[in-house]
Amino acid sequence: MCRNIKTLHNFKPPATDGEIRASALQFVRKLSGTARPSKQNEAAFAKAVEEVTHAAHHLLAALVSHAPPRDREVEAAKAKARSVERFGAARAS
């Protein structure tokens, strides 16, 4: 799966429309194998993004969690720590 697609379920505040659409766009890009469709495929690409966005909204609304909502800043810090552990600290320029 594409690494740029982020988990959007069970956060406080909930995922925004923009975050859901960005995730859908990444998913469609991954499926199609292209970041920018040709003019001929532009309409199909845009329609797919809209349909995936719509489906993602429905999925997120239907999911139930008994865990407390996660904090975005805490999750971002954890991800950064995992990245440093995996790749090492960024070199100073």
Which helices and strands occur, and which strands form pairs?
Elements: E1 11-12, H1 17-32, H2 42-62, E2 70-71, H3 72-87
Parallel strand pairs: 1-2
Helix pairs in contact: 1-2
What does the largest sheet look like?
2 strands, parallel
Termini distance? 32 Å
Anisotropy-based shape: flat
Question: In percent terms, what proportion of residues is strand?
Answer: under 5%
Order of strands, main sheet, comes to 1-2
Low-confidence stretches: none
Total strands: the figure is: 2
Q: Helical region count?
A: 3
- Mean pLDDT rating: 90
Radius of gyration: 16 Å
Helix content: 55-70%
Category from helices, strands and their pairing: mainly alpha
- Series of secondary-structure elements, N-terminal to C-terminal: EHHEH
